[in-house]
Amino acid sequence: MHKKLFIPGPVEVKPEVLQACAAPLIGHRVPEYAELHGACIEPLRRMLGTKNDILLFTCSSTGVMEASVRNCAKKGVVVCMLGAFSDRWAQICLQNGKKTAKCQVEWGKAIRAEMIEKHLKTGEYDCVLLVHNETSTGVMNPIEEIADMMKRYPDVVFVVDAVSSMAGVKIDVDRLGIDVILAGTQKAFGLPVGLTVSAISPKAFARAKELPDRGYYFDFIEMKAFGDKNQTPSTPNVSIIGGLKFQLERFEKEGFENRYRRHANLKETCWNWMKEHGFGLFPEKGFESVTLTCASNTRKVDVPKWVKRMSDRGFVISEGYGRLKNDAFRVAHMADCTMDDLKECLGVMSEELKKL
Amino acid sequence: MHKKLFIPGPVEVKPEVLQACAAPLIGHRVPEYAELHGACIEPLRRMLGTKNDILLFTCSSTGVMEASVRNCAKKGVVVCMLGAFSDRWAQICLQNGKKTAKCQVEWGKAIRAEMIEKHLKTGEYDCVLLVHNETSTGVMNPIEEIADMMKRYPDVVFVVDAVSSMAGVKIDVDRLGIDVILAGTQKAFGLPVGLTVSAISPKAFARAKELPDRGYYFDFIEMKAFGDKNQTPSTPNVSIIGGLKFQLERFEKEGFENRYRRHANLKETCWNWMKEHGFGLFPEKGFESVTLTCASNTRKVDVPKWVKRMSDRGFVISEGYGRLKNDAFRVAHMADCTMDDLKECLGVMSEELKKL
């Protein structure tokens, strides 16, 4: 049985997108490849509102989270910790021997500008790592407020993990002054796993040049040198880049604004279902994610049982992450998810909820 | 027009393999994923003749070349340099701040055991990096001879890049005492780009534990902790892992020995064509690759023109690599390439050669 994914990645990928990824392989040093690679760049720049370099990394998002640390943190790094994935970034900093200030809140809370600024004021840090949308808790951080504050620290490189928001939520990279933004393709892009899209500013490249031990596979400078020729230093994930081109054409056909509006509408519908069925939202009010709903298990239902039964019916939703396993549950509504898809899933959730 | 690939990666991928990779996505924290992941492990162990841990990295081969450096080189590393890809490994060592001894020969020559041993005798190095099959020159290093020598240095971690040989040439990992072996899926596995298969020995894991700055995405220890549960720390390339399972079943149906024999026969046929048409082989005699033929342009034909015309006919072969552009050309015959496929390509090469 085909099970439809309503988990926060990998997401459901449309059959025609899977077929676009299943095109015959081409070599990565032929003009056809450069053409394909190049065809993705301008649409991505338009989507992200940026003139920065777009680099395509063959890895999942964690790889470019690490790349950012190795390429952008010289004096020290402030890492915003609000859940499993942002916590992982702190771990990455430590495992790369970087001086790390932990800007940490309890799960469900958002990071506020002043929490980061407290560390920046010391002058000891030259890099900030912010997860925009924390997939484990469903919290979306106030990126506008944080970006405003960051403008007072022009020497600090501002890195944003937009893994579960990019392509589902509008993020104006240049207006916000984001130096590095990254997202894997298996979330709101509606593609398989294996490629991470990033936009890198001149400031980030300048910083990278000052760091001799930034490594090779994730070296921003080497990636840019090849990116300038619409290539990559190592063999890229040609198949997903083919799918990315296909998806970007679809995005522009839908219209980016319409796409974001669709995501906002899906969120509204999901929240309403939660309210109607007596569930609260896990995140702090005003900081709830648009691409996935993390609900509080206020009714104390047996979440793992419910999730299992949903799966048996062909709909995959998520338990709470890690220690939240039974205290929360998550429904993702991103990428190519339509209102009908979501309503179908919510309908089955209602049915199975009654039987718990 | 679909162009058939006879380049040393990406290689031609069979339509049914592309379809296996185009299966609907599944989550990576569900039992179905662990089952899929687990289904690849024992066949890979059988293929490689090893009891070591099999780790699946979501990246192209260069990523795990870097991983090996960060996880295995403590005192210093001896890197065997005989062409573009092995030279890259030296670059990776330097960009990760490792003390590096260059064991270098001119392009076309092979690395011999005594060249490596000269460095090991100093006692200053605890890691050897050997490219088995150098894709840029078509040289296959004498791995048996080198492995025999390595047995005299039990504290040295022996890392082999088998990128363009694994699954096409028999490599008995445990008998040879290889601590880390790696290969991307887009070569003799006959799969798309985006996954790197590796087998890691207890000695390599022990070394990794001594290295605090081995990073995160490519951390052998973290990968093993999740690998023990048939999972990966970050989202894996589920689609290619699905294709890998499909291919491994096909390999076992063909029989590994038959598969290796097929590769040896393809090589013979390709060499004979070269001889008949007055071309020499670029590699030193006795060290020619089995999976790709690198021919010397002894007839001084216009290689780029020939390659272009072949492409126009729907057959992609390679010029010489880098500075060998016009002095050599390469025809790969690996993965699912049949004798008929190769003969068809060689036939068109004959036709186009006459017209040059």
Assembly annotation: homodimer
Share of residues in helices of chain A: 40-55%
What number is the mean pLDDT of chain A? 97
- Radius of gyration of chain A, taken over Cα atoms and rounded to an integer in Å: 20 Å
Number of domains as seen in the coordinates of chain A: 2
Poorly predicted regions of chain A are: none
SSE arrangement of chain A, N to C: EHHEHEHEHEEEHEHEEHHHHEEHEEEH
Report the portion of residues of chain A in β strands: 15-25%
Sheet having the most strands of chain A = 7 strands, mixed
DSSP strand count of chain A:
15
The side-by-side strand order for the widest beta sheet of chain A comes to 2-10-9-8-5-3-4
Report the total helices of chain A.
13
Give the termini distance of chain A in whole angstroms. Answer: 23 Å
- The CATH architecture designation of the largest domain in chain A is 3-Layer(aba) Sandwich
